Here is the input.
Amino acid sequence: MTRVLLYKKENCHLCDEAENILERLKKEKRFFLERILVEENTDLFDRFGNKVPVVFINDRLVSEFKLDEESFLTKLSEL
Here is the structure.
């Protein structure tokens, strides 16, 4: 199964938007969605803190800052 990883922060409206999009899409596209709060890990916060939401598909970076649904679906279909 395809794995989608969402790096996010609490109280981040772009993160909430991305999470809502991914939650909706996973029902029809059937992928596993994992969420990671970057505040819980210093290394992750240093790497992604200013770029969230950050989305990976099967360990491939596909989005930073604002998730574009069409672009995400295109990249998802390419795998």
The two ends are 11 Å apart (CA to CA). The chain has a mean pLDDT of 93. The first helix runs from residue 13 to 29.
